[in-house]
Amino acid sequence: MEKSSYFAALIVLFLLTIINVSSSSTSRDLPKVICIETEREALLSFKKGLIDHSLPSWNEDNCCAWMGVQCDNVTGHILQLDLRSPYDYTYLGSRFGGEVNSALSELKQLNYLDLSLNNFGGILVPPFLGSLPNLKWLKLSRAGCVGGKSLRWATNLSSLQELDMSGLDLSNTSDWLQVISMLPSLVVLHLSNCSLDKIHFLPNASFTSLLKLDLTHNQFTSLMPNSLYNLTRLVLLDLSYNRFRGPIHSSLNFFSSLERLYLSNNNFTGSLPKGIGLLSKLERSISHFPCNQMNKSYYLNIVNLSGNHFSGEFPPCWMDWPLLKLINMENNNLKGTIPSSVGSLVSLKSLNLRNNSLHGELPSSMQNWTRLIMMHIGGNKFSGNIPTWMGKSFPDLRSLVLHSNKFDGAIPLELCHLTSLQILDLSHNHLSEAIPRCFNNLSAMTIPQNTCPLYRFHISFRFDRKCIAGDKRNKAEI
Ligand SMILES: *[C@@H]1O[C@H](CO)[C@@H](O)[C@H](O)[C@H]1NC(C)=O
Ligand SMILES: *[C@@H]1O[C@H](CO)[C@@H](O)[C@H](O)[C@H]1NC(C)=O
Ligand SMILES: *[C@@H]1O[C@H](CO)[C@@H](O)[C@H](O)[C@H]1NC(C)=O
Ligand SMILES: *[C@@H]1O[C@H](CO)[C@@H](O)[C@H](O)[C@H]1NC(C)=O
Ligand SMILES: *[C@@H]1O[C@H](CO)[C@@H](O)[C@H](O)[C@H]1NC(C)=O
Ligand SMILES: *[C@@H]1O[C@H](CO)[C@@H](O)[C@H](O)[C@H]1NC(C)=O
Ligand SMILES: *[C@@H]1O[C@H](CO)[C@@H](O)[C@H](O)[C@H]1NC(C)=O
Ligand SMILES: *[C@@H]1O[C@H](CO)[C@@H](O)[C@H](O)[C@H]1NC(C)=O
Ligand SMILES: *[C@@H]1O[C@H](CO)[C@@H](O)[C@H](O)[C@H]1NC(C)=O
Ligand SMILES: *[C@@H]1O[C@H](CO)[C@@H](O)[C@H](O)[C@H]1NC(C)=O
Ligand SMILES: *[C@@H]1O[C@H](CO)[C@@H](O)[C@H](O)[C@H]1NC(C)=O
Ligand SMILES: *[C@@H]1O[C@H](CO)[C@@H](O)[C@H](O)[C@H]1NC(C)=O
């Protein structure tokens, strides 16, 4: 008697353990509801149209437990279908091909559909997607579809918040902007690498809710369209890798919400966009205190204008950009000196002014940049001594590139205090005297490149602590 109850207790314990294990291993997907039969059939029809991938889990009774399927835990309706190819697209054969069966239009509650990185062999984006009235997220990037003549099918997607059609050929799709700009809820739009060459806003275009716009890697050759300046709620604008030309207009409203501005690798000319920390000459001449009218608080974080033909001076008024972390203006034609007002950029982590025609001494207000990680100002005409305060003021500095300038005098011993420094390039200057012996104190340089590849911090600042010798502080990501 005693023995059997002991065994019963053991069995219960065993079962509990199994349940525990299985629930923790599938905790995300553990369906609390049973899926709806008509929706299950719709998924099966969809599966029949697919080739190159077997979707092994798609045969159990409860389709809410199928890979990539998520149901409403009360009604059982399918809400999300995430069939993004899990592999890099170079692994041929691991992606879906075939057709996108219109049976999916049965899933009336669907709000999330991701078919990215599959290979549907150049079919048209299926127009029935326009009949999914609750769709909020539609992700088709590099899914191997093309836009065809028209996106008219999308006009009724009034709940759509995010649309990603990057890598789909929209070169024949003349109404892409007309249709997309009318979507009343759209917040995020990715149309990178879509073979687009014309951007023509209709007068009635709205984009009232758009916050993030990515049009990189297309073939636009026009001026920056005036209508873009009207998108005053934009937080991110990325027009990199096109051939947009001409100047950027002065429009302070345009910058009032912008956090990240990427215009690199275009054909922009003229002075730097007014609104990035500067007043026009006219405004300066009529104002007694040149910058004090700009007391608005701006949110700009990242400015990447590299690889254009911007000319003129480095902006003089930086008081309003306390959040600015990254400035990249390399490969332009900037002239003049760096104004001492840059001392207000107290959050700056990365400055790249490589390959311009800037001159003069580095202003001592730069000492305020105590979070600086990278300074690349090679290929200019900067002069004077290398400031001794660099050694004290930049405890996190990892990369200091001053090559091909006109710095003179001795290399200051204070540079040896830069214990995080991994790259130091002082070549092609007019420096004299010996290389300081204390350079062998720069121990961070001995960290093998493969443990701390520098490209990672160029891109995101997401590098591990082991890369920062002697520094226990956590590094924030930009
Ligand atoms: C349904 O799931 C969501 C998130 O998965 C959860 O927040 C919510 O409380 C659940 N509702 C019910 C009724 O279980
Ligand atoms: C664009 O249209 C032309 C002519 O109809 C056609 O030959 C071409 O395949 C189409 N390209 C795409 C990407 O739709
Ligand atoms: C959009 O919805 C309206 C009203 O339901 C309908 O008449 C129209 O055909 C739909 N348009 C498209 C392109 O599906
Ligand atoms: C753009 O798409 C083409 C063809 O789909 C691809 O070969 C190319 O690598 C893509 N370019 C970028 C920058 O992603
Ligand atoms: C916007 O204007 C175009 C062309 O004039 C027209 O076809 C379209 O119906 C208009 N859209 C709205 C929402 O008014
Ligand atoms: C920008 O908005 C203003 C006011 O809302 C409007 O008058 C003007 O036509 C718009 N400009 C463009 C280019 O859309
Ligand atoms: C800025 O743009 C250049 C050129 O497109 C690119 O190489 C670089 O990674 C960008 N930097 C940042 C921080 O976005
Ligand atoms: C850039 O613009 C200039 C004229 O301003 C033009 O001569 C040149 O061809 C353009 N470059 C590219 C790559 O489009
Ligand atoms: C800017 O300064 C003026 C004058 O000092 C003041 O009236 C105004 O409220 C300030 N604006 C902001 C946004 O702080
Ligand atoms: C410097 O920038 C110009 C564009 O202003 C570019 O044409 C040139 O190739 C760049 N030189 C180097 C060495 O990067
Ligand atoms: C340095 O930053 C402080 C705020 O942290 C600011 O008050 C001061 O004016 C700045 N110094 C210079 C020279 O800009
Ligand atoms: C270099 O390191 C040695 C030993 O750690 C120390 O005594 C010396 O002060 C350091 N020199 C400089 C310039 O930091």
What is the overall number of helices? Answer: 8
Number of strands: 27
Bound molecules: 2-acetamido-2-deoxy-beta-D-glucopyranose
Structural class, judged by helices and strands? alpha/beta
**Overall tally of structural domains:** 1
Helicity, as a percent range: 10-25%
In which order are the strands of the major sheet placed? Answer: 2-3-5-7-9-10-11-12-14-16-18-20-22-24-26
Domain Leucine-rich repeat-containing N-terminal plant-type: 37-72
Membrane topology: Single-pass type I membrane protein
InterPro entries: Leu-rich_rpt (IPR001611), Leu-rich_rpt_typical-subtyp (IPR003591), LRR_dom_sf (IPR032675), LRR_N_plant-typ (IPR013210), RLP23-like (IPR046956)
Keywords: Cell membrane, Glycoprotein, Leucine-rich repeat, Membrane, Repeat, Signal, Transmembrane, Transmembrane helix
Question: How does this structure look, described?
Answer:
This is Leucine-rich repeat-containing N-terminal plant-type domain-containing protein. InterPro entries: Leu-rich_rpt (IPR001611), Leu-rich_rpt_typical-subtyp (IPR003591), LRR_dom_sf (IPR032675), LRR_N_plant-typ (IPR013210), RLP23-like (IPR046956). With 478 residues, the protein is an alpha/beta fold. The chain has one domain (77-467): Leucine-rich repeat, LRR (right-handed beta-alpha superhelix), CATH 3.80.10. The protein has helices spanning 2-25, 37-49, 176-180, 226-229, 252-255, 281-286, 390-393, 454-459; strands at 50-51, 69-71, 78-82, 97-98, 112-114, 123-124, 137-139, 145-146, 162-164, 188-190, 212-214, 236-238, 245-246, 260-262, 267-271, 302-304, 309-313, 326-328, 333-336, 350-352, 357-360, 374-376, 381-385, 399-401, 406-409, 423-425, 430-431. The strands form 4 sheets. A 15-stranded mixed sheet has the order 2-3-5-7-9-10-11-12-14-16-18-20-22-24-26, with no helix packed on it. Strand 2 (69-71) and strand 3 (78-82) form a beta hairpin. The protein is elongated, with a radius of gyration of 28 Å. One 2-acetamido-2-deoxy-beta-D-glucopyranose binds at residues 167, 193, 217.
